[in-house]
Amino acid sequence: MLGHHYTHTFLETAVASMNAGCNLELSYGMRNNVFTHIPQALAMGNITLQMLHDRVRPLFYTRMRLGEFDPPAMNPYSTLDLSAVQSPQHRNLSLEAAVKSFVLLKNVRRTLPLQARDLPGKRLAVVGPFADNPRVLFGDYAPVPEPQYIYTPRRGLEMLPANVSFAAGCHEPLCQSYSRAEVVGAVRAADVVVVCLGTGTDVEMEAKDRSDLSLPGHQLELLQDAVQ
């Protein structure tokens, strides 16, 4: 609220937040953050002790439900070790979640799904800045996984019984430097073309807004060249 000029001081912000029902602060690790002014607001009579109790109660209730105050022996997660990280079971669950999260907007001529039995001898082209760049596949606030566990579209398609060709066209989402010849060469003889476009955190994220919804840089040109 201070940054948006709704209030002028941390004390005013603490009072306004408490009155609005807010009981958590993203403090950015500052030593003198907004909610450290709550004792001063209470002493000045800007908020009441009952209001403070009302704000704190759900926080501790949630922490109790999460088991934060339970003995370690009662916490089932305490028995986990590093062998659980990237275990086959978890990777299979991630794959299932990825498959179930796809959204198909159009299926012209019933092109999808591709059938593995029809692919031997077929030529697939996968093109675009998102086709084989693991770094750009994750959004804002995403974890940083081990590269060996990241399956780019190219890596996934190369597991199919087909001849797969690849061309990035441009190597970053901003797509300011574009090689039309590279893309046309990859798609010219292909039976199926997969074009991988988008934005990623290079283009948009928290505190980095966009003024329009257009594909960045030469990405639209890349798509048109692939289609033509």
From TrEMBL:
Gene3D superfamilies, per the entry: Glycoside hydrolase family 3 C-terminal domain, Glycoside hydrolase, family 3, N-terminal domain
Any one GO molecular function term: xylan 1,4-beta-xylosidase activity
Transmembrane segments: none
SUPFAM superfamilies for the chain: (Trans)glycosidases (SSF51445), Beta-D-glucan exohydrolase, C-terminal domain (SSF52279)
Domain of life of the native organism: Eukaryota
GO BP annotation list: arabinan catabolic process; xylan catabolic process
Glycoside hydrolase family 3 C-terminal domain mapped to chain residues: 103-226
Record bears the keyword Transmembrane helix: no
InterPro entries in the cross-refs: BXL, GH, Glyco_hydro_3_C, Glyco_hydro_3_C_sf, Glyco_hydro_3_N_sf
Record keywords, A-Z: Glycosidase, Hydrolase
Protein name: XYL2 arabinofuranosidase
Species the sequence originates in: Bucorvus abyssinicus (Northern ground-hornbill)
Gene name in the database record: Xyl2
